[in-house]
Amino acid sequence: MADLSRLAQNSFVIIGRAGMDFYADPPGTRLEEAECFVAHLGGSSANIAAAITKQGGKAALVTRVSDDAVGRFALNQLDRYGIDRTHVTPVGGEARNSLAVVETRLEDCQSVIYRNGAADFEMNAADVEAVDYAAYGALITTGTVLAAEPSRGATFRAFDLARAAGLPLIFDIDYRPYSWPSADIAAEVYSRAGALSDIIVGNDVEFGFMAGDYDRGLDAARRLVADGAKIAIYKMGERGAVTITPDGEFHTGIYATRALKPTGAGDSFMGAFVVALAGGHDARSAAERGSAAAAIVVSRVGCAPACPTAQELDDFLIRQPAQKIA
Fold it and tell me: CATH number, domain at 282?
């Protein structure tokens, strides 16, 4: 496994999709009743990249987008957030960008995802082989990128190249059943990716899925660290998270917030967490900053635009330390 001190470069190469999110407007509107929508950058990897840049880190994305107006929207949004898109390649034909149509509602929040013929799944080995991995401090990937070929094979090729360059591998499980041909294939591929990774982040359902038993997810996270990973974060929603390291494990709580929606928390958590590690925070402090960033995102519309800046996160932590829930 890689040395996490490489993270101090605070520069991340991220593999995975960039798309468009449509939010029914105004907040609280149900999709079937909406007459107006607002558009934002979407896609878990692009959102993580935006979270990183807003925290002061550097992020480069490796993916493909559709060679059409929606793909160009995604490219323009990457520019807006200062995300390096040198390795974001337009693809023509029938490939289409990922599209999510979402409500800003806390109860019964509906999210309709369009992923048929997804452009990002067209990423291939040549795309990842064009990256200079030595220029970065870590590789981040989300599980969605592994759901189809040639993207899956390209991602594992990127793992090999990043490992050869000494980069830590950071894996956000991000299990989306609708993207996979079967649960069995997903479990096998996720287990392979997890075993190769230095930092693994997921929720209790995702780790339980990897374990093949939803009651054994925490055991699966612990086993990954026992087998060589440096950090595994087992998130439990309102019950906080368990962070496991070779030196032991600890529980952190969540931060009280006036939530508008349940979406976006994971991407914001990851961005703030890795930038905190890069800045010298220990695992506990980094996990707390990730949790605070997640609390901020669910209180705002969108994901990428809702991710806090470093100053906003610092201010939030100063104002609300007593509201942390164990």
Answer: 3.40.1190.20
